[in-house]
Specification:
transmembrane helix, 394 residues, membrane, 7 strands, transmembrane, Calcium-transporting ATPase, cytoplasmic transduction domain A, metal-binding, 3 domains, seven-stranded antiparallel sheet
Length: 394
């Protein structure tokens, strides 16, 4: 029978609530509810000194009960969905409209045409419209093919470990195989790949380490953590089992060392929760993002906890407002990409205004020249032909 968190004296939800607390509030919760970190170790059936037994079955049971230390990526968009999104560009829309207008005018033939008209020019009028359509098709296919290949390359479809909020294609496989962390099992230190960490492990942290999971300090030696990646707090946070024992995944150890009990991994860690709310991870079906958002905003501890919860609340609203991750796609653009997109949009608007003004001026000129000066009567067929010539000049 598969192991569940009910086989232990702590549930996933209970550990999540614990990891949302900070400072004295977290310490009070640990002492009152678990009788200290040793009591928490007892509930998780682990030895605070010797760690877990290095038994494959026991480790697998813990992965089944509390989850793996992996964050599966959200499913990528289909080729046709990417193509549809690419066609939403204002410049391409203008080109498509111009191509359709050009094709419509090229195939329209008034009932009475003068023999002096150049038949070869009229027969080849459709080439302009088709050329525009082909150009748009080539641009869209090239752009979509590059994006689709990046999203579905083997190195980008592998699962994410919870040691970073974002990743670069092609580097994830290297991170997964080379990023190792020190744990104590059977009383002996072992360096294991971070995605092999399980809840209940006794891990050792030292200067320069990137924490791969959430945990509670058991022992520390002047340990200081950089939590700016999660809370935005630029100052180093001093951690101690006596006043602030909570360690969060995705943060860096900048000074000191220590040992901690792993309490949350993968999607259940603080980094995993944030990535789920951002839409950058594939959530489990039984999880409810809106409920998680409500829960996460309950922590009011020290050391930037309010900044973390406020940020999660905002990102939760974004994720709820966009099931497809469209808003997330805009958010993850770099500053340069955002500026270039805005510039392209402005150029498109300016070009549209100039083109519309040019057409309007030519129509007004035609009306004044033919109807006001020459005194000609209005003839729809002749005006459409004139508009076609105007289109060719443009």
């Amino acid at each position: 029978m598969p192991s569940t968190s009910d086989d232990y004296d702590c549930s996933i939800a209970e550990l999540k609530l614990l990891m949302e607390l900070r400072g004295a509030e977290a310490l009070e919760k640990i002492n009152s509810a678990y009788n200290g970190v040793e009591g928490l170790c007892h509930k998780l059936k682990t030895d605070p000194i010797n760690g877990l037994p290095n038994d494959t079955k026991e480790l697998q049971n813990r992965r089944t009960a509390f989850g793996k230390n992996e964050i599966p990526p959200a499913p990528s968009k289909s080729f046709w969905r990417l193509a549809w999104e690419a066609l939403q560009d204002i410049t391409l829309i203008i080109l498509l409209v111009a191509a359709l207008v050009s094709l419509g005018l090229s195939f329209y033939k008034p009932p009475a045409e003068h023999a002096s008209n150049d038949s070869s020019e009229s027969e080849a009028g459709w080439i302009e419209g088709v050329a525009i359509l082909v150009a748009v098709l080539v641009v869209v296919l090239f752009d979509v093919s590059v994006v689709f290949w990046k999203l579905n390359a083997p190195t980008t479809r592998q699962t994410l470990t919870s040691n970073s909020l974002f990743f670069l294609p092609g580097l994830q496989s290297k991170i997964e195989t080379e990023h190792k962390f020190s744990v104590i099992r059977n009383g002996e230190p072992h360096d294991i790949v971070v995605n092999e960490l399980v809840v209940g492990d006794i891990a050792r942290v030292k200067y320069g380490d990137l924490l791969p999971a959430d945990g509670i300090l058991i022992q520390s030696n002047d340990l200081k953590i950089d939590e700016s990646s999660l809370t935005g707090e630029s100052d180093l946070i001093r951690k101690s089992e006596e006043f602030d024992p909570v360690l969060l995944s995705g943060t860096h150890a900048m000074e000191g060392s220590g040992r901690f009990l792993v309490t949350a991994v993968g999607l259940n860690s603080q980094t995993g929760i944030i990535m789920s709310l951002l839409g950058a991870a594939k959530e489990k079906k039984e999880e409810k993002p809106r409920e998680e958002t409500t829960t996460l905003t309950n922590g009011n501890g020290a050391h930037g906890a309010n900044g973390l919860t406020n940020g999660i609340e905002k990102t939760g609203d974004i994720a709820a407002a966009s099931d497809d991750g469209e808003e997330v796609g805009r958010m993850t653009k770099s500053v340069l990409q955002t500026k270039l997109s805005n510039l392209a949009l402005q150029i498109g608007y300016i070009g549209s205004v100039v083109a519309a003004a040019t057409v309007l001026i030519l129509i007004i000129r035609h009306c004044i020249s033919n109807y006001a000066i020459d005194g000609k009567s209005f003839q729809l067929e002749m005006d459409i032909r004139t508009l076609g010539h105007t289109k060719s000049r443009l």
